[in-house]
């Protein structure tokens, strides 16, 4: 029975669009999740070391973060993520990210290192090299190497456009499935019409599945508080959450609702090493 359950979950993670490898082990922060998972063009965000590698070049100060979410309130689908890094000499950014998900009968992990740089302070380029590991105790273990690449264009301080390819090399885990893991292509924008309001929009194409559109909004009523909402298609989801800031610490809480599967809560916390705080 344990073998059967592990195989079923492994098959779902490999095949299902909402549980695919291309997204499953990426980002996962409370900020992104509260805005329907939009992430491609988010700037000054440590979680881009697990998202669009090019956007990591916009990080203002070094930062570290931890996140956890439980998809559809199932303990077997609990995911934990770490991300950390910084920008050095105003020339390049370097950081790492690691994620683990699963239970005793099925465990999946991903670890990656990101390098990003800026050209004329307007165009940011980045790449991430990942190692993904899957283990099913009664069946065995397997690993593969995946490459992610991205670009971010800062049109102005208010407007940013980005694009990213997740699993650009179409890696596969032959031991468990001879097919290539899903490759995800996404474009997105971030627009700040004022210092208290931010809008995001992502278009995500993942393998043979329909195009997914996602949009989010972040409102700052006061400096220490962020209120976020979002919605997405394919699948249809509605999201919301809040962010709290205090002396370099940021706590982000989010909830995602999908009618067929239920609720996914997310909590993340990160610390920015800002000497001015």
CATH topology: Porin
| Whole-number mean pLDDT | 88
Number of DSSP helices? 3
- Class by SSE composition: mainly beta
| Number of DSSP strand runs | 16
One letter per element, helices H and strands E, the order comes to: HHHEEEEEEEEEEEEEEEE
Q: What general outline do the C-alpha atoms trace?
A: globular
At the first level of CATH, what is the class?
Mainly Beta
User: What Rg do the Cα atoms give?
Assistant: 18 Å
Could you tell me how far the N terminus lies from the C terminus, measured between alpha carbons in angstroms? 54 Å
What would you say this structure looks like, in words?
The chain contains 3 helices and 16 strands. The chain has helices at residues 2-15, 21-24, 30-34; strands at 63-70, 78-88, 92-103, 106-119, 123-136, 140-154, 159-166, 172-173, 177-180, 184-194, 197-206, 212-222, 225-232, 237-246, 249-258, 262-272. Mean pLDDT is 88; it is low at 1-7 and 9-21. It is 8% helix and 57% strand. It has a single domain (2-272), classed as Porin. It is mainly beta. A 14-stranded antiparallel beta barrel has the order 1-2-3-4-5-6-7-10-11-12-13-14-15-16. A two-stranded antiparallel sheet has the order 8-9.
Short description:
This protein has 277 residues and is mainly beta. It has helices at residues 2-15, 21-24, 30-34; strands at 63-70, 78-88, 92-103, 106-119, 123-136, 140-154, 159-166, 172-173, 177-180, 184-194, 197-206, 212-222, 225-232, 237-246, 249-258, 262-272.
């Amino acid at each position: 029975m344990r073998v059967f359950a592990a195989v079923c979950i492994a098959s779902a993670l490999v095949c299902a669009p909402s549980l695919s490898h291309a997204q499953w082990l990426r980002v996962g922060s409370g900020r992104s999740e509260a805005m329907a998972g939009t992430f491609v063009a988010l700037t000054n965000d440590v979680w881009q070391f697990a998202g669009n590698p090019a956007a990591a070049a916009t990080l203002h100060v070094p930062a570290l973060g931890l996140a956890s979410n439980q998809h559809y309130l199932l303990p077997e689908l609990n995911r934990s993520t770490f991300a950390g890094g910084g920008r050095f000499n105003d020339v390049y950014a370097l950081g790492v990210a690691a994620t683990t998900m699963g239970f005793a009968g099925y465990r999946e992990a991903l670890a990656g290192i990101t390098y990003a740089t800026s050209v004329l302070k307007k165009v940011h380029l980045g790449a991430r090299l990942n190692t993904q590991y899957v283990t099913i105790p009664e069946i065995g273990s397997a690993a593969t190497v995946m490459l992610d690449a991205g670009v971010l264009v800062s049109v102005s301080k208010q407007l940013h456009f980005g694009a990213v390819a997740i699993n650009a090399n179409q890696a596969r885990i032959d031991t468990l499935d001879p097919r290539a893991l899903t490759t995800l292509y996404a474009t997105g924008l971030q627009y700040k019409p004022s210092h208290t309001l931010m809008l995001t929009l992502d278009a995500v194409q993942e393998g043979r599945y329909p195009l997914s559109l996602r949009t989010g909004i972040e409102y700052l009523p006061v400096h220490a508080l962020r209120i976020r909402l979002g919605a997405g298609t394919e699948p249809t989801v509605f999201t919301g959450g809040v962010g709290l800031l205090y002396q370099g610490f940021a706590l982000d809480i989010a909830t995602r609702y999908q009618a067929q599967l239920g609720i996914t809560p997310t909590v993340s916390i990160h610390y920015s090493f800002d000497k001015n705080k």
